[in-house]
Amino acid sequence: YTYDKEIEQYYLMARYYEPEQGVFTAVDPDPGDEDDPQTMNGYNYASNNPVMLADPDGLWAGVLFKFAAKGGKTAWKYAKKGAKKVSKSMKKWWKGFKAKPKKRQETKQTNSQLKSFDSDKRKHITEPEHQWNSVSDGSWGQVQALIKRTMRSGKESSYKKSARKKTLIYNKRKIIVTFVRKDGKIKIGNAWVERK
């Protein structure tokens, strides 16, 4: 990111961030998650609470209680660090946006597939034994975002007889998503975080 002294805002790859108000001045290209309406606000950063929260990877806002105890200076320092990470997330997003048509098609299929999951499938994937609380708060919105990330950026390999899997290391934990490709379409079977 870079700081523009003339307009007193941070430029984070595709958008300007106004630190006093804690919002971006242009709409976020990621539409957000309908299960977590706060993510659908195209202008906010860290759930519109940049003093107490940071959103270093662009997925969800995290509480800064330990930093708040050290005072505003430390919190601001962390917020600037988080802004750098947002910049990295934007680079990754842009890289994905420019991906080959096949990869874009797979991303669309993954998104469509996740939206079509009924409550039983969601409940199964978010069961405690699947360890999602080790990398998120365990909510469907955050789990879904991590599944999307794994399907988009994970390493693909075979899984059992005719299935495939993608794995992604996230926060020092391995996320696994199993799926099959049939008639050119992806069907997700299961997803979990590998036990340590």
UniProtKB/TrEMBL annotation:
Pfam families recorded: Ntox35
Which residues are in the Bacterial toxin domain?
A: 118-193
Protein name listed in UniProt: RHS repeat-associated core domain protein
> Origin, by domain of life?
Bacteria
In terms of PANTHER family, this protein maps to: PTHR32305, TRNA NUCLEASE WAPA
For this protein, the record's Gene3D superfamilies field holds:
RHS repeat-associated core (2.180.10.10)
Q: Which residues form a coiled coil?
A: none
Q: Region (Disordered) spans which residues?
A: 98-122
The family database entries (InterPro entries) matched by this protein are listed as:
Ntox35, Rhs_assc_core, T6SS_VgrG/RHS
